[in-house]
Amino acid sequence: MLEFPHIFAPITLEEMDSIKLMNRIDSKYLTDETTLVRVLGDAAKAGYRALETEGTQISPYNSIYFDTPGLKTFLDHHNRRLKRQKVRTRVYLNSGAAFLEIKRKNNKGRTKKKRMSIPLEEMDDFSRDKEAIAFLAEYSEFTIDRLSPVLSTAFDRITLVNPAKTERLTIDTHLVFNNFRTGKKTSLLDAVIIELKQDGRAASQMKGILLDNRVKPLRVSKYCIAVTLTDPSVKSGRFKIKVRVIEKTINKKIQVI
After folding, report:
1. Sign, Cα dihedral of 140, 142, 144, 149
2. Is the predicted pLDDT of residue 61 greater than 70, yes or no?
3. Which fold has domain 37-250?
4. What is the pLDDT of residue 23?
5. Residue 1: which pLDDT band, with cuts at 50, 70 and 90?
6. For 144-154, how does the pLDDT look when each residue is reduced to its tens digit (9 = 90+)?
């Protein structure tokens, strides 16, 4: 279990929302908790601040991903379709705020996310919410009758911002997956998924810190890895390679129950 002392000066959600990375470059990385401790120490020395909400700098998240009976959103990603979408609900457990979110990737590799607030009790079923149905129709290619819950993801997130406010870093640990359709559960043990969002015009302090600690980039989707691990019937060869990379990084075999 990762021990995370409050070594960072805090940044508020209001300050975080004011940071607009208009020419944004997104990069994902994979490491383990032992290496992460060194990365956090180096980031604190470099003046990074951590998002603090409800008095803590660690935020637990729960998400539920929705897909078609044939897992179209999963297969679009696996088959390298350039224009694709994901539909999920997410709750920020520290505050209890819940949202319906639609992530869309265009054929230029840019990702845009739209979200709306929903009641917490609609996390696994928003089909009777007229506003949510209208939101889905406006921003998604899917209608509500084509979608149902596939799996949940749970993880703890640390969010860092550099002193110049030109990059944000999300660090996800303790990842746990539960597939509703197959009944299978698993976790990524002490694997850590890092996502760096940076202003493309500015030099990145964090890239240097990650390089110094031998943290390697890996394009990885939590949803796609979760489905690969918990649904043996689905076509997932390309993602199985990434599962093996994760296991090699943490030097452990991921177990599915």
Report:
1. negative
2. yes
3. mRNA Triphosphatase Cet1; Chain A (3.20.100)
4. 54
5. very low
6. 999 999 999 99
Helix or strand run (H / E) with residue 19? none
pLDDT digits (tens, 9 = 90+) for 218-255: 999 999 999 999 999 999 999 999 999 999 999 999 99
Q: How far apart are CA 201 and CA 195, in angstroms?
A: 18
Measure the CA–CA gap between 153 and 137, rounded to whole angstroms: 24
Tokens of 1: 């279990």
Collapsing DSSP to helix, strand or coil, 108 comes out as: coil
DSSP, collapsed to helix, strand or coil, labels residue 16 as helix
Distance CA 138, CA 134 (A): 6
CA 49 to chain centre: 20
Q: Does pLDDT of 179 surpass 50?
A: yes
Three-state secondary-structure class, residue 139: helix
* Residue 105 tokens, joined: 């990737």
Q: What DSSP string describes 192-226?
A: EEEEEEEETTS--HHHHHHHHTTPEE----HHHHH
Please check whether residue 227 is in contact with residue 154, taking contact to mean a CB–CB distance below 8 angstroms: no
Number of Cβ within a 10 Å radius of residue 32: 20
**Rounded distance between C-alpha atoms, residue 220 and residue 107, angstroms:** 18
Q: pLDDT at residue 5 above 70?
A: no
Summary mean pLDDT of the chain: 92
**Helices and strands, number each (H, E), in the chain:** 7, 12
Prediction pTM value: 0.93
DSSP 235-246: --HHHHHHHHHH
Q: What gap in Å lies between CA 104 and CA 101, rounded to an integer? A: 10
Q: Where are the domains of the chain?
A: 37-250
pLDDT at 164: 87
